[in-house]
């Protein structure tokens, strides 16, 4: 009955939360020697999966493609470091990304509310 | 799956690690002229050693923040100053002073303060996110 918007939004919210966890981990370890920053390559995965899995329905009895579950994968960035303790956390960049992700999370939460509101409107007005 | 409160826990480990670091820096600064310790030598500069904490929950690694692995004593040379009037001076009039460099400690302290603030900011951001989640469906 409910459309897949809920699933998509839920996945997106979960991923943002996981991202926030990694920002927290990176910031907590900003002064840990040898630590390498962790991040989630979500957009990359999403884009990839959308490009790969475009199924066309050529017959009226073809089922539409099932909702894809995009899993967030934690990646460690092993590249260069800006300090001499082999730690590659750039705290300014990390904070900026964190704020951006939080705003994205709030936007997604609002979208989720708007989605629920639409159902509420339908339920209240039809009798 | 992951919980919001785990994120707050991660930032909390960051806060306490940086606070401990500031404490150690304060001790170093306070003892920058201490020529006598219980071991009979001048004070040695102390440094905390941080390590990433990854908990193993049900066979799955889970980010746990940071821990202070140990407190390391800097083995570098003591400062030697000529001061024959000092009670701890040797027969040639030289005094061994702690291997604490105030400028270095100050720089470390500012670093620790900034890192502490960054962790506090992470807590605030997580809080804003949880609040947004609680508003869903309101």
From TrEMBL, chain A:
GO terms for biological process: bacterial-type flagellum-dependent swarming motility. GO terms for cellular component: bacterial-type flagellum basal body, rod. The keyword Hydrolase does not apply. The keyword Coiled coil does not apply. Residues 7-36 form the Flagellar basal body rod protein N-terminal domain. It is found in: Bacterial flagellum basal body. Structural component of flagellum, the bacterial motility apparatus. Part of the rod structure of flagellar basal body. Belongs to the flagella basal body rod proteins family. The basal body constitutes a major portion of the flagellar organelle and consists of a number of rings mounted on a central rod. This is Flagellar basal body rod protein FlgB. It comes from Fervidobacterium thailandense.
From TrEMBL, chain B:
Keywords: Bacterial flagellum, Cell projection, Cilium, Flagellum. GO terms for cellular component: bacterial-type flagellum basal body, rod. The keyword GTP-binding does not apply. PROSITE patterns: FLAGELLA_BB_ROD. The basal body constitutes a major portion of the flagellar organelle and consists of four rings (L,P,S, and M) mounted on a central rod. The rod consists of about 26 subunits of FlgG in the distal portion, and FlgB, FlgC and FlgF are thought to build up the proximal portion of the rod with about 6 subunits each. PANTHER family: FLAGELLAR BASAL-BODY ROD PROTEIN FLGC, FLAGELLAR PROTEIN. This is Flagellar basal-body rod protein FlgC. The lineage of its organism: Bacteria, Thermotogati, Thermotogota, Thermotogae, Thermotogales.
């Amino acid at each position: 009955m409910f459309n897949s918007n809920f699933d998509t939004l839920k996945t997106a919210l979960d991923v943002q939360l996981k991202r926030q966890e990694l920002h927290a981990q990176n910031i907590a370890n900003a002064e840990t020697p040898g630590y390498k920053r962790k991040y989630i390559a979500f957009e990359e995965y999403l884009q990839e999966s959308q490009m790969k899995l475009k199924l066309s329905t050529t017959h009226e009895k073809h089922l539409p493609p099932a909702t894809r579950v995009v899993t967030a994968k934690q990646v460690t960035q092993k590249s260069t470091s800006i300090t001499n303790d082999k730690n590659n956390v750039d705290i300014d960049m990390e904070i900026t990304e964190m704020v951006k992700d939080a705003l994205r999370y709030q936007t997604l939460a609002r979208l989720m509310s708007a989605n629920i509101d639409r159902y509420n409107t339908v339920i209240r007005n039809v009798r | 799956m992951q919980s919001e409160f785990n994120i707050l826990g991660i930032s909390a480990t960051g806060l306490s690690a940086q606070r401990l670091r500031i404490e150690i820096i304060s001790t170093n600064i306070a003892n920058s002229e201490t020529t006598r310790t219980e071991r009979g030598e001048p004070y040695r500069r102390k440094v905390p050693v941080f390590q990433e904490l990854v908990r193993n929950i049900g066979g799955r690694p889970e980010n746990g923040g940071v821990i202070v692995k140990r407190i390391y004593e800097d083995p570098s040379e003591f400062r030697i100053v000529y001061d024959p009037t000092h009670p701890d001076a040797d027969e040639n009039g030289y005094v061994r002073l702690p291997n604490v460099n105030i400028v270095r400690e100050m720089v470390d302290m500012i670093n620790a303060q900034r890192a502490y603030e960054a962790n506090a900011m992470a807590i605030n951001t997580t809080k804003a996110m949880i609040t947004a989640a609680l508003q869903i469906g309101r």
